[in-house]
Design a protein that fits this description.
The structure holds two protein chains of two kinds. Chain A is an all-alpha fold. Chain A is built from eleven helices and no strands. Chain A is globular and about 50 Å long. The model of chain A has no long low-confidence stretch (mean pLDDT 90). The two termini of chain B are 33 Å apart. The chains are: A mainly alpha, B mainly alpha.
Amino acid sequence: MSFLVALQFLTRLPSPIRHEITVEEMGRSAAWFPAVGLLLGLILAALDLLLRLALPPAVVDVLLLVALLALTGALHMDGLMDTCDGIFSFKPPERRLEIMRDSRVGSFGVVGAASVLLVQFGALQSLPLGPYGGLEGTPLTQRAAALVLAPLLARWAMVYATVAFPLARASGLGAMLRQHTGRRELVLATLTALVVALAVGRLAGLAAFLVALTTTWLGARYVMTKIPGLTGDVYGAINEVVFAVVLLAWPLLLRVLPWLP
Amino acid sequence: MSDFLVALQFLSRLPSPIRRPISLEEMGRSIVWFPLVGLVLGALVAGLDRLLEPVLARPARDALAVWAMVALTGALHLDGLVDACDGLLAFKPPEVRLAIMHESHAGGFGAAAALALLLLKFAAVGGLPPHLRPIGLLLAPALGRWAIVYGYTRYPYARSEPGVSLALKQAAVPWRFALATATAGGACLAVLGPPGLLLLLLALLLATLAAGYVLSRIPGMTGDTHGAVAEGVETLTLVALPLVAASAGFVP
């Protein structure tokens, strides 16, 4: 049930929920964010197999990003743009928070989104296509493993950022969520992320989890040098960046780490 | 001839020889020439691409071809895509969606859509095999502009205030649509033979689906949504061309 709330919140997939969702339900649903990420990842991996039959690799890579934007209604990319507009503006911290609230996009936002999208594209282009060690005979390639893991870890990162870092303001979607997202939700989300990361990626999956953790920590610390705490927009920005960094790191992790059979 | 120049001036930033004010009525009539303007723009881009072939690496030419289309049109249709996405996807009632489309600022949905579309065009141009490359660059703008004529002819217009879009809507009568279709279809046939008509069919399919979505969100089409459809059809043409050519066993 809580999973469906998370699904409705994070995606534009049709939802069977017919009643008004309370803030408490929404906050608690954070425990299921990585599960939603897993679902998105599986959709991406399946789409990838299908599209590769007919289209050139670069076109497939962009279409995967388009699919992710469409599935999420550009929720997180929008957060990334607002975050960039705010934290890179040469204004005092309170004014930066106001700018983030403005739904219009400024030049820092466009440049930020263009850069992150281009890095995501480049990272997808460089994913290795080889079969995954220890899991021969399954359709799981090194590329598919990354397509499953990256959206999952990106959504776990939002839960971690929500629970482990202070909020910048007392109102807004982020604040509402945080009231009801606590240690319990973080533990459940982390368990889901770790189990799937180990199952799909073995040792390299665990390393990818650590990459996501480090990226989130560094990103959140950086944002807090600009504004007094995080906001819902920042959670979205962290999602997009962690997605890009996990994809970027994946080929390197596979080269450096042996994986268990 | 004069109407063609009006269309060229409206749809592109090319220097225009027209030195007098253009009436809304002329503007409307010029819709019949939209696909031909697309062919002219496409030929310019394909020509530029050919000129740069000896000096630039392919990915650089891919990006320049995409950029050239944006520059030649002054981002007219891309701007429409941005506004259309901001309005259509807003969690607001239909009247507010129309008002958001009118705003000149970009929002998150629009910016994300434009970036994704440019990236997709870049990848699609890069995915064209050398013998299909000039064909794609030539036909995509023509079919994109044909889709605009189709949209104006077939679907209701959402706004009532006088302006270019309303003039285009009033002038979009079946015989003009037929001539525009003959231009676009003729170009596809001339370049690719009968399989070229598959591209026209795909353009028709996407334009119809997109208009269906737009009409589910707002009461009619607007200039912005027609521009968004044109961008979508251009991109689809570039993506689908290798498949269409392969399915027909097309060899130059």
